[in-house]
């Protein structure tokens, strides 16, 4: 999947949702990471073809998705907050998808997502998590060149979110937006960080995991860390720090820290703020 964005901007009256965004990425899975209001959803709406930019252009595999006149790229989009107002059962949705020859993955996904647990519920009476699972079923069960997902695990418990992330990590042609650095790391192989409508960092997995910078989980936050560890950012009981791996192994054996791993999106995200 090749995504090219050149000086992209979207204007909402006097306010720019995004502006001056440019990147050129060739990857199987692209994660767009940022806090609320960073411009993630605006960028997704252009890449999915739902919105035409005010300025600049974007192409996926050589085609501008909001035009699609000369070429046809099949793009499926999944909203962060799905809403179903039709009074039909989940079973009816599943059966409709199963008779579509372009949707060969319905049965496997129904099982994997646990949708069988509420097949007789009506779509307009589902909980937020159940609606999200049905939303993902529609996005993932049918053939598509590119799938665009906005916060795909929103409203889901950690068990279901883990299943979704595992499924997505094996897919090619995926663009997702998330505010969760760990979800981005679990799924994608290229990463973009947005802040206040601008791109502030991008890179692949090799760029992401900086040498000598670690996420450290503390056993007790109040104990702090010994000399030789330079804390860069703190996220409660998790700190991002520059440290020697041998020292961290020693602290782990002594029970001073609960664990550590090479820092990734959490560090890049914090550094971009």
Care to describe what's here?
The chain is an alpha/beta fold and 273 residues long. The chain has 2 domains: 2-208, Rossmann fold (3-Layer(aba) Sandwich); 213-272, no CATH class. It contains 9 helices and 13 strands. The strands form 3 sheets. A 6-stranded mixed beta sheet has the order 5-6-7-3-8-9, with helices on both faces. A 4-stranded antiparallel beta sheet has the order 11-12-10-13. A 3-stranded antiparallel beta sheet has the order 2-1-4, covered by helices on one side. Helix 3 (106-113) packs antiparallel against helix 4 (128-140). The two termini are 29 Å apart. The mean pLDDT is 87.
Topology (elements, then pairings):
Layout: E1 2-12, E2 15-26, E3 29-33, H1 40-47, E4 55-60, E5 75-78, H2 90-98, H3 106-113, H4 128-140, E6 146-150, H5 158-168, E7 174-178, H6 181-187, E8 190-195, E9 198-204, H7 205-208, E10 213-218, E11 230-235, E12 238-242, H8 245-253, E13 257-262, H9 265-272
Parallel strand pairs: 3-7, 3-8, 5-6, 6-7
Antiparallel strand pairs: 1-2, 1-4, 8-9, 10-12, 10-13, 11-12
Helix pairs in contact: 3-4
Labels describing this entry:
six-stranded mixed sheet, alpha/beta, 273 residues, Rossmann fold
By DSSP, the count of extended strands is: 13
- Give average pLDDT, whole number: 87
Strand order of the largest sheet: 5-6-7-3-8-9
The profile of the biggest β sheet is: 6 strands, mixed
Name given to the CATH homologous superfamily of the largest domain: P-loop containing nucleotide triphosphate hydrolases
Order of helices and strands: EEEHEEHHHEHEHEEHEEEHEH
